[in-house]
Specification:
The complex is a heterodimer of chains A (148) and B (476). Chain A has helices at 32-47, 68-86, 113-116; strands at 4-7, 12-18, 23-29, 57-64, 88-98, 101-110, 124-125, 131-134, 140-147. Chain A is α+β, with helices and mostly antiparallel strands and 148 residues long. In chain A, the strands form two sheets. In chain A, strands 1, 2, 3, 7, 8 and 9 form a six-stranded antiparallel sheet that branches. A three-stranded antiparallel sheet of chain A has the order 4-6-5. Chain B has one domain: Alpha-Beta Complex (tRNA-splicing ligase RtcB), CATH 3.90.1860.10. Chain B is 35% helix and 26% strand. Classes of the chains: A alpha+beta (148), B alpha+beta (476). Chains A and B meet through helix 2 and strand 7 of A and strand 4, helix 8, helix 10, helix 14 and helix 16 of B.
């Protein structure tokens, strides 16, 4: 599978991977938290260029799940919910994980259609290609397909 | 897909013999060319669905089947509650009751051409589309409950459309058995400002011309002739449906072990129909069907207002409204015995044949209109359900073209502005708030819808009636 996307920093990066109808989001980081943050950026990049989104307003997010993978889906779905109900896009994330619960802050701004040119809204994160694991190089990977 | 995995039964029917934990065979309806193009994941997903408890006859895939999540998109499966059958949130998907409706306008293409540009601008101005758009109907708690219970009937009661419309909507515009109390506060919150919005992605509103009538007799019953102008609306249950799908996918995935349901893929999250969570999901999912029906009804009203302003002689009447992501209770004949089944259609259109009691009297003699969406640069089709289809896959057919290219590939290949310019030179006006969205939805990023429709016709899933080509396309 040919990854697509870009790096955003030394500790966290993101990429998209192809799915026939939808799109895969993948965060990569030196810690599990960083991988989750990268997955958040990859989610934004499905909709718009994350660089066009100013981190002006902070939104707190918390979720619980019985394993890491379900927690990743919950995290992405929480972002989908905040984007939909607050009409926002996010470009900066800080994630804290404790034993299957997540506490995070997402920073972003209101959607401005002419500037952000949002391509598509994300309906939800799926369990397809879902994984939270370490790769061969010891980096954390957090990924799944999202439905658009 | 490797043809060696399949056994050919007839020209367009391919079987996967049960193996491992499969309870029934898999059956794919497609031409050899379409099968060769299909992803191996379709094979995997068809066989996974065949392992679910209570599945009846077979796990089916339509000619447009492609890699989905859990079920293939283009998947059909029915479950018997008396034999441990399940209902699957994954088998319905996120966009519950996404569907297409088609309106006749009573106008010929020559009458629309002089105002085409104004019509495109006005539709684009009037119909909220794209990320972050909000509708003019903001629902309070009382109206939200009434909408979720009443569907398009609620919308008509509020002044959006006519009672005559209801006759030409599946379930006569209102899905029975909806339980608004099973819809979470978050799902309702997500819908509060989204009534009467088109959404984004592959959703669209198109003004189209009928370019070919393949079956004049059925065309006459449907009231469509070559040169007619029609309007198609493709959208679903918006944020409410997405949130219900999200929440039940998780609760069903987590509870599967408790119900001793073995999931080959967590995305197939399901629960026994006769279980608490199964019943809760059915109540919420049916409320989401009503939300989709109400949404398309409000959009229809907006379109009528625009036509009334610019083309007052137009009379917009509903040919039919189909949903292609649902689970519905239907009576089918299984091994000679009438049986009540829970039929899941994920990216598949119900296609009931002639004489079916669910159809309105004026259409009953010919069968149900089956509305297949194409891309903004190619074509859409009207088909009709067949008698044979009832025995092939519970009266089901394909739903669209399906992508041939990922969004990223499309974005690398095309610029939105060039796509708009190119289509304009071919007489198709595109209006969208997002040029990136246009590039991702470029016609070249989709498979050939005609090939899919021809395959459905050859397999007798549904019969071709008319080909429609776009004049105006409003995208989210």
């Amino acid at each position: 599978m040919q990854p697509l996307g870009s790096d955003v920093g030394p500790d966290t990066c993101w990429e998209h991977f192809p799915h026939e109808a939808d799109i895969g989001v993948r965060g990569i980081g030196s810690t599990k938290e960083a991988a989750f943050e990268g997955a958040g950026l990859a989610l934004t990049a499905v909709i718009t260029d994350p660089a066009s989104v100013s981190p002006l307003q902070a939104v707190p997010i918390a979720c619980d799940a019985s394993d890491d993978e379900l927690l990743l889906v919950d995290w992405l779905n929480a972002l989908v919910y905040e984007m939909a109900t607050q009409n926002m896009l996010f470009s900066r994330f800080q994630v804290r994980l404790d034993e299957y619960s997540l506490h995070a802050t997402a920073w972003g701004e209101s959607v401005e259609v002419t500037r952000h040119q949002p391509a598509v809204e994300v309906k939800g994160a799926t369990y397809t290609e879902l994984a939270v694991k370490k790769d061969e190089q010891g980096r954390w990977i957090a990924q799944c397909v999202v439905d658009v | 897909m490797d043809l060696n995995l399949l056994r050919r039964r007839g020209h367009d029917e391919w079987h996967i013999a049960p193996r491992g934990k499969m309870r029934v065979p898999g059956v794919i309806y497609a031409t050899e060319a379409l099968i060769r193009d299909m992803d191996e994941k379709v094979y995997e997903q068809v066989t996974n669905v065949a392992t679910l408890p209570g599945i009846v006859n077979a796990s089916y895939a339509m000619p447009d089947a492609h890699w989905g999540y859990g079920f293939p998109i283009g998947g059909v499966a029915a479950f018997d509650p008396d034999h441990g059958g399940v209902v699957s949130a994954g088998g319905v998907g996120f966009d519950i009751s996404c569907g297409v409706r088609l309106l006749r306008t009573g106008l010929m293409v020559e009458e629309v051409q002089p105002v085409k540009k104004r019509l495109a601008d006005s539709l684009s101005h009037r119909v909220p589309a794209g990320v972050g758009s909000t509708g003019q109907v903001r629902l309070g708690n009382h109206d939200m409950e009434a909408m979720l219970a009443g569907g398009a009937r609620w919308a008509v009661g509020k002044g959006y459309g006519t009672h005559e419309d209801l006759e030409f909507i599946e379930e006569q515009g209102r899905m029975a058995g909806a339980k608004p109390e099973q819809v979470s506060g978050r799902a309702k919150r997500r819908q509060q400002d989204e009534m009467g919005t088109l959404g984004s992605g592959n959703h669209y509103l198109e003004v189209q011309q009928v370019v070919t009538v393949h079956d004049a007799e059925v065309g006459a019953v449907f009231g469509i002739r070559e040169g007619d102008v029609v309007v198609s609306i493709h959208c679903g249950s918006r944020g409410l449906g997405h949130q219900i799908g999200t929440e039940f996918l998780k609760s069903m995935a987590v509870s599967a072990a408790r119900y001793r349901v073995e999931l080959p893929d967590r995305e197939l999250a399901c629960a026994p129909i006769n279980s608490e969570i199964g019943q809760e999901y059915l109540g919420a999912m049916r409320a989401a069907i009503n939300c989709a029906l109400a949404n398309r009804q409000i959009l229809t009203h907006l379109v009528r207002e625009v036509f009334a302003d610019l083309l007052p002689e137009a009379r917009l009447s509903l040919l039919y409204d189909v949903s292609h992501n649902t689970c519905k209770v239907e009576d089918h004949v299984v091994e000679g015995t009438p049986t009540r089944l829970f039929v899941h259609r994920k990216g598949a259109t119900r296609a009931f044949g002639p004489g079916h009691p669910e159809l309105p009297p004026s259409l009953r003699s010919v069968g149900q209109p089956v509305l297949i969406g194409g891309t903004m640069g190619t074509a859409s089709y009207v088909l009709v359900g067949t008698e044979e289809s009832m025995a092939l896959a519970y009266g089901s057919a394909c739903h669209g073209a399906g992508r041939s290219m990922s969004r990223h590939q499309a974005l690398r290949r095309w610029h939105g502005r060039d796509v708009v310019k190119d289509l304009e030179s071919r007489g198709i006006l595109i209006r969208s708030p997002s040029m990136r969205g246009i590039a991702e939805e470029a016609p070249g990023a989709y498979k050939d819808v005609s090939e899919v429709v021809d395959a459905a016709d050859e397999a007798k899933l549904a019969k071709k009636v008319a080909r429609l080509e776009p004049l105006i396309c409003i995208k989210g």
